[in-house]
Structures are given as C-alpha cells and as structure tokens.
C-alpha cells in the first residue's frame, strides 16, 4: 500500500512518524508533499520517507492519499490531485470542516473523513473516523490502521463529526484551560510553579487513567472523592454555584455550531 500525504505539517508528521515507527506502512511506501523544501528535507532525514513538491506526480501511483493541508488551501490543491488520482485510490481527509461531498463534488471518489486531535503528536491522540458516501468497510479499516498509530480511534457517522470536533478535536484546549486555572490558583496560594505544574499534570493524567481502568462513570468517581463537608465538597459547591458545568456544556454546543458553520462554507 502506497500512502501519500499532501501537506507535510504538524499533523502529517505525527501520523507519518507513528505509522513508520509502528511498521503500519514501511517508510519506502510513504511519500509526503509540501511547498517547503525545508519541511521535505526534515521528513527525509527523520523518517526516511519519499518526498515531492509535485502533488499530482506524487498521487499518480498512490493507493491512499491523505489530505493534510489546511482547509483553506484545499480548493487550490484539489483540482491537480483529483485529476491525477488512480481510479481506485482512497482519499483520507484530516482537514477540519470540509465535508466529504465537497471533496468528491459528486464524483465516484471514495473518501474517509478523520477528525484527529493534537495529542496525536505524542501518540495519545483521539480520532473520529467517518465514511463518506462511497467509502467501504475496508476503507474504514485502512483509515483506522493509519490513525491507530497515533492513538485511539472510533468510527462515527459523518453527521457526527461536528460533535466529535466539539468533544475531542477542541477538547485538549478545555483540559489545558483547566490546567491553566489550577496552576494559576496554586500560584496565588504561593506554591512553587514547577511543583504546581507537576502536581496538576499528574492529577489530570491520574484521574483519566483511574476512570479508564475502573470503567466507572465520571460522576461516580467524583462522588467518591467528595465527602460531605470536606475540601472537595467546598470546591465542587463553588463550581456548581458558578455554573461551571453549564459553561462547559454551552462551550461544546458553540464549538459544534461553529464546526457546522465552517463546513457550510
Ligand atoms: N492541529 C489540530 O489539532 C488538528 C485537528 C484536527 C484536524 N486538523 C487538520 O489537519 C490539517 C493539517 O493541520 P496542521 O496543524 O498539520 O497544519 P500545518 O502544520 O499548517 O500543515 C499544513 C502543511 O501543508 C503545507 N502546504 C501548503 N500549501 C501546500 C500545497 N499547495 N501543497 C502541499 N502542501 C502545502 C504547509 O506549508 P506552509 O506552512 O509552508 O504553508 C504545511 O506544511 C488541517 O486541515 C487541520 O484542519 C488539525
């Protein structure tokens, strides 16, 4: 299987490094394209993959074409690529906000859409994978295999991609916001900045692992650490009074709505 990445950016690098390191696709079967020679040199040196500055030439013998350019670049690069695709090539798009129907333009092109997130850069990503109209189960398996090299994957319907964007796509920023707030408060309490960072990070990672490994619901685990009249109760009551949960729910609805707006152009 020959896999060509269009756009040698951060996301492409995360996925290429994952698939090469895990042997999902041998480096000789991976090609990346970009307009920057510097990026291409970096990919050659770091991952020993093929590189090209010519998108059309690169996709001409590709079995899988991964669209990893910024969404605003898509209209400029797609006509050349589309004209050079092999008839049976699979297109995997990681571009946010571009529906598969905009990629195919009604033509018989098999597209799988993926919404990854930035923890993919450290192999701890979460990707929602959705079939376009003509994508087969085998196509979904190929996309899953590629994205599983950088983290967790789930299959969803394309109409659910905007909710996935609101949850795991934008989600790392919500967790960073929480970490930022916790570290800021610890600073106000005059705790050393390095210690605050270490404890805050270990707390978020530890809480996530506890939930994952016990299989318990978030609410149950929260109740378990919230004894009546205790310190955690004082904190949670303050959050409830100030509508923290309602704010997070409203934030996710706003993210989903924005994702829909972007998809509709
Ligand atoms: N980062 C995320 O959390 C995230 C999450 C979900 C989805 N995505 C999607 O992933 C995609 C890539 O994001 P990214 O953060 O990796 O972006 P990025 O770092 O900007 O990568 C895009 C790369 O494409 C290159 N490029 C520009 N024009 C090109 C052309 N004509 N032919 C080939 N390559 C070209 C860019 O070069 P220049 O820099 O020189 O322009 C850049 O190296 C985006 O569509 C984004 O929506 C990202």
Short characterization:
The protein has 265 residues and is of the alpha/beta class. Helices cover 54% and strands 14% of the residues. It has 12 helices and 8 strands.
Q: Any key phrases for this structure?
A:
265 residues; alpha/beta; Rossmann fold; ProC C-terminal domain-like fold; 2 domains; eight-stranded mixed beta sheet; 12 helices; 8 strands; 54% helix; elongated; binds NADP nicotinamide-adenine-dinucleotide phosphate
Describe the protein in words.
Helix 7 packs across helix 12 and helix 8 packs across helix 9. This protein has 2 domains: 158 residues, NAD(P)-binding Rossmann-like Domain (Rossmann fold); 93 residues, Orthogonal Bundle (ProC C-terminal domain-like fold). The radius of gyration is 21 Å and the shape is elongated. Strand 7, helix 6 and strand 8 form a beta-alpha-beta unit. It has an 8-stranded mixed β-sheet. It is 54% helix and 14% strand. It is of the alpha/beta class and 265 residues long. NADP nicotinamide-adenine-dinucleotide phosphate binds next to helix 1.
Query: Average pLDDT, to the nearest integer?
Result: 97
Ligand identities: NADP nicotinamide-adenine-dinucleotide phosphate
Assembly classification: single chain
Strand order of the largest sheet: 3-2-1-4-5-6-7-8
Structural class: alpha/beta
The CATH topology of the largest domain turns out to be Rossmann fold
Measured distance between first and last alpha carbons: 33 Å
Helix content: 40-55%
- Proportion of β residues? 5-15%
Number of strands: 8
- Radius of gyration of CA atoms, rounded to a whole number: 21 Å
Low-confidence stretches: none
Which CATH top level class of the largest domain fits?
Alpha Beta
Tell me the number of helical segments per DSSP (H or I, 4 or more residues long).
12
Quick one: CATH superfamily of the largest domain?
Answer: NAD(P)-binding Rossmann-like Domain
């Amino acid at each position: 299987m020959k896999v060509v990445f269009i756009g040698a950016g951060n996301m492409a690098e995360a996925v290429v490094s994952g698939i090469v390191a895990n042997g999902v696709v041998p480096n000789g079967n991976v090609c990346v394209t970009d307009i920057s020679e510097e990026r291409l040199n970096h990919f050659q040196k770091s991952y020993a993959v093929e590189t090209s500055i010519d998108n059309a030439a690169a996709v001409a013998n590709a079995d899988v074409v991964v669209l990893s350019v910024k969404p605003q670049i898509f209209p400029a690069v797609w006509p050349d690529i589309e004209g050079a695709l092999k008839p049976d090539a699979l297109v995997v798009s990681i571009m946010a906000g571009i529906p598969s129907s905009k990629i195919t333009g009604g033509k018989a092109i098999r597209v799988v859409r993926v919404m990854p997130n930035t923890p993919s850069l450290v192999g701890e990503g979460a990707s929602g994978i959705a079939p376009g109209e003509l994508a087969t189960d085998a196509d979904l398996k190929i996309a899953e295999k590629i994205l599983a090299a950088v983290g967790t994957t789930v299959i969803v319907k394309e109409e659910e991609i905007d909710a996935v964007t609101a949850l795991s796509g934008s989600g790392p920023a919500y967790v960073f916001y929480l970490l930022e707030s916790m570290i800021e408060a610890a600073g106000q309490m005059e705790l050393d900045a390095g210690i605050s960072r270490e404890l805050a990070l270990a707390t978020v990672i530890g809480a996530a692992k506890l939930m994952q490994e016990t299989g318990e619901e978030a609410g149950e685990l929260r109740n378990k650490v919230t004894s009546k009249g205790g310190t955690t109760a004082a904190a949670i009551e303050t959050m409830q009074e100030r509508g923290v949960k309602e704010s997070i729910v409203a934030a996710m609805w706003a993210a989903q709505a924005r994702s829909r707006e972007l998809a509709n152009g």
